Amino acid sequence: MLDSSANKTQAATCCADTVENHTHCSCSDMSQDHARSTAGASSQCCSSASAKSSSTSTKTESSSTCGCHEALDASTCGCNDAVDASTCGCNDAVDASTCGCEGKITGDMSGLIDGECHFEGMSDEAVAAEIEQRLVAGGNINGAEALYCMERMGLETLIELSHKITSQVASAHVSLCSITNVKSGKCTQDCKWCAQSAHFATGVDIYDVKSKEQCLEEARLCYNKGVEMFSLVAGGRKPSKVEFEKLIEIIDYIKENLPIKLCASLGLVDKEQLTALKEHGIERYHCNLETAPDYFKNVVTRHTVEDKIKTLLDARDIGMELCSGGIIGMGENDKERVELALAVRRLGIKSIPVNVLHPIAGTPLENQRRLSDEEVLRAICIFRLVNTDAHLRFAGGRALLSDETVNKAIYCGINAAIVGDLLTTLGSVVDEDRARFAKHHYDLPDIPAQVSAKADAPTLQA
């Protein structure tokens, strides 16, 4: 376990799956051994991670930005490429509400609960069967359908559906990352859940940027436990010039001495700083959306969700992998949890931390009602149904959950975790997490971590 003084967090958020971030297309058969056995025509979708395919998918071979190669219908098209309904090469008979295409990766968060839902009057079993067939074939559910599942589907049916999608579509390779709170306290921002805000009296440890020697030692402990990625996390809107120089020195020192992948979560850095981070070895940038775009103003007032989205898009533009998710249980409703799941899909995020609010004394949310086990599990299921091939990452707050609920969460969709101590709340013991995932027949990272591990692991068997 990491040094607890390096601190533990609800705001925990990080990075780190080994799956290559397919920034422009998620239709992806990506590799033969990752192909969906039941995906039919969708298994012939594009696999480019760096550029849009110019292939076509219509019978007339018309020009398109969709990367599908065959004549696909709405039920099998899984293009999540940078396309919209008018340019998608999916069959002429489809529209935006039935095609799996998500449109351009964009910061526009309007109309997240989109499309129509025709499930009214159908049994849970019939709805689940239709969704399973569509998602395994590479398609998506729209916002209205996701909300129906969140609010109307029986819990056990929803869990079983989510498990089947996890088994057949998501990676069976567990992604483990850990974080160090490289700078703590005195944050100028007012995030209502966070112990590090200078606006709240929480008694959190306060210190400036850690030494490079301490950061390397923490990273080495993680590496020796089979943790594939290590993330430097700093409170504050963004680092000062002096702090940023110290962070670059830490990054260089770790890279010189340890073959571990590195991530950073340093707030609303600009494109110039992101470029420097990438040049010095940061492979992934983390910036949580935190909650539904429309709910964000209820929990943060000193920056906006648009600020966060700009940072993520800037990081994507320079070729960095992305990690972004949020915290459930901050007073948002079911619809807003669905919107958060849809928002990260719209940004094409493939590493999604799922935090459960751990109320911290002294913060405005210290008396916030704790979510029930059912609410937590429903949210995880919806994140999986909406983001079928992403790594869903257990993050802050799971220490509040029972062992039974943690195991159910892994069963229905969690296939990644932030391990060790978190920022300001208790995290988890790495060995215990590995044992939990092994129980569910996941492939675990080697010990010590092998950063060159195969990117696209085979899926679990249902």
Structure, described:
By secondary structure, this protein is α/β, with parallel strands linked by helices. 29% of the residues lie in helices and 10% in strands. The chain contains 11 helices and 9 strands. It has helices spanning 124-136, 143-152, 155-168, 212-224, 241-257, 271-279, 305-317, 334-346, 373-386, 403-412, 430-439, and strands spanning 175-183, 229-234, 261-265, 282-286, 321-323, 326-328, 351-356, 391-394, 416-418. It has a 9-stranded parallel sheet. Helix 1 (124-136) packs parallel to helix 3, helix 2 (143-152) packs antiparallel against helix 9 and helix 4 crosses helix 5 (241-257). The chain is globular, with a radius of gyration of 21 Å. Residues 1-103, 422-426 and 452-462 have low confidence and may be disordered.
What are the main properties of this structure?
9-stranded parallel sheet; 10% strand; globular; disordered N terminus
Largest sheet: number of strands, sense, barrel closure: 9 strands, parallel
The percentage of residues in β strands lies in 5-15%
- Backbone shape: globular
Strand order of the largest sheet: 5-4-3-2-1-9-8-7-6
Helix content: 25-40%
Give the end-to-end Cα distance, rounded to a whole number of Å. Answer: 33 Å
Secondary structural class:
alpha/beta
Poorly predicted spans = 1-103, 422-426, 452-462
| Secondary-structure element string | HHHEHEHEHEHEEHEHEHEH
What's the β-strand tally? 9
Mean pLDDT level? 79
Please give the radius of gyration in angstroms.
21 Å
The number of helical runs is 11
Give the topology.
Blueprint: H1 124-136, H2 143-152, H3 155-168, E1 175-183, H4 212-224, E2 229-234, H5 241-257, E3 261-265, H6 271-279, E4 282-286, H7 305-317, E5 321-323, E6 326-328, H8 334-346, E7 351-356, H9 373-386, E8 391-394, H10 403-412, E9 416-418, H11 430-439
Helix pairs in contact: 1-3, 2-8, 2-9, 3-9, 4-5, 8-9, 9-10
